[in-house]
Amino acid sequence: MTSVETLTVHGLGRVAEPYRDIVPPIHPASTFERAADGSYPGGRLYARDASPAYDDAEEVLRQLEGGADALLFASGMAAASAVLHALEPGARLLAPRDMYWGLRKWMQDRAEHGHLTLAFYDNADLVDLERQLQSTPTQIVWIETPANPTWDVTDIAAAAALARRYGATTVVDSTVATPVLSQPLALGADIAMHSATKYLNGHSDVVAGALVTREDTPFWQRVRAMRALAGAVLGPFEAWLLLRGMRTLHLRVRTASASALHIARTLETHPSIAQVLYPGLPSHPGHAVAASQMHGGFGGMLSIRVKGGGSAARAVAARVKVFKRATSLGSVESLIEHRASVEGPGTRCPDDLLRLSVGIEPVADVLEDLIQALDG
Ligand SMILES: *Cc1c(COP(=O)(O)O)cnc(C)c1O
User: What is the CATH number that goes with domain 249-375?
Assistant: First the structure.
């Protein structure tokens, strides 16, 4: 049987007629012809409902996550929003205390305007999660693991089992772990979410999002309707670029993970560093759980806390030459950012923290760059 990795490398491998192209064509059509009898022989009506431009990328994603169905969106935030908008008014959502800042703020905004009820649990604390589930009926348990920007780890299997016991749906933002390293649906989660802008596309040139469901449920049909009716659809060219980007997903993620582990281990003893946060290090509180639910690596994301506080951290970021100073993550080029100043007022991120997205450059180049920046 062909492995999912080969299917991904082949971009599904459909050969297009009549020229037998081995690369899929782009489907830019917004609308599709109706036959004289009123039927739709092509099976499509209008691109906002179901564009053939998404078919191959969605099928690759569905297989990568081992799900029943997949949906592409105009961004990761649009994918997450489709879940939030599919909830009944006032539904309760339990989110991790540490998570992607933009989505946390958006959830808080939705809660302040009465669209949902929001409570938080400590990412790694299942006792806290269960206490929260016991106290009030909950519709969604949101998980992000490893979570921005400390890479806290949540035990997906245990959290999803708890959520199910209390009748809640589990959604895992698996952007950082990627389907290469972690399979949330196989661990019992109901929906996997991705900012496809990051590792899935991998080249800092597409903004996209995705959801993959373990089972086709009435809630999933509402999510599907949210895309068609709220209309946060991806452009055909972006879908095509995403499919192309995913063809190298396994190689990119494995390389970035191996480099990140090497960098984390090396920097842990550097005199200018107060702490290295990386789930691949035994010193990280989430290491054991990460080792059990991630396979083949711990991802390409790590954070370093620089001795001397915020100004020292910003000075290190100012000195890099190989790293690009930019937000975002999961691309072929290494990125560095002073996370607290990106998140702004109200951030939970320590001021001395630099977030690193390790790319696929030779690790020696990246490490040497960091060390010269740290040594000043
Ligand atoms: C970037 C990101 C998002 C948001 O995705 P966009 O594609 O920027 O809308 C959500 N979660 C995580 C973990 C991210 O890194």
Answer: 3.90.1150.10
> What are phi and psi for residue 225, nearest 5 degrees?
-65, -35
Strand-strand pairing, 169-173 and 140-144 = parallel
34 belongs to the catalytic site = no
| Separation of alpha carbons 203 and 76, rounded Å | 15
CA dist., res. 50 & res. 101, Å (int) = 31
Residues in the chain: 376
CA of 77 to the centre of ligand 1 (A): 6
Which atom of ligand 1 approaches the CA of 176 most closely? 13
Active-site option among 14, 44, 48, 324: 48
19 CA distance to ligand 1 centroid (A)? Answer: 38
Our answer to whether residue 166 is catalytic in this structure is: no
Q: Tell me whether residue 198 is one of the annotated catalytic residues.
A: yes
Give the tokens for residue 286: 């989430």
Cite the residue boundaries of each domain of the chain with CATH code 3.90.1150.10.
249-375
Cα(22) to ligand 1 centroid in Å equals: 31
Architecture of the structural domain at 4-246: 3-Layer(aba) Sandwich (3.40)
Task: Per-residue pLDDT tens, the chain, 376 aa: give them.
Answer: 689 999 999 999 999 899 999 999 999 999 999 999 999 999 999 999 999 999 999 999 999 999 999 999 999 999 999 999 999 999 999 999 999 999 999 999 999 999 999 999 999 999 999 999 999 999 999 999 999 999 999 999 999 999 999 999 999 999 999 999 999 999 999 999 999 999 999 999 999 999 999 999 999 999 999 999 999 999 999 999 999 999 999 999 999 999 999 999 999 999 999 999 999 999 999 999 999 999 999 999 999 999 999 999 999 999 999 999 999 999 999 999 999 999 998 899 999 999 999 999 999 999 999 999 999 9
Q: Does an H or E element contain 6, and which?
A: helix 4-9
CATH 3.40.640.10 in the chain: give the residue spans: 4-246
Residue closest by Cα to atom 5 of ligand 1: 76
Judge whether 321 counts as a catalytic residue.
no
The whole-model pTM stands at 0.98
Q: Is the dihedral of CA 189, 155, 210, 362 positive or negative?
A: negative
User: Relative to the CA of 80, which ligand 1 atom is closest?
Assistant: 10
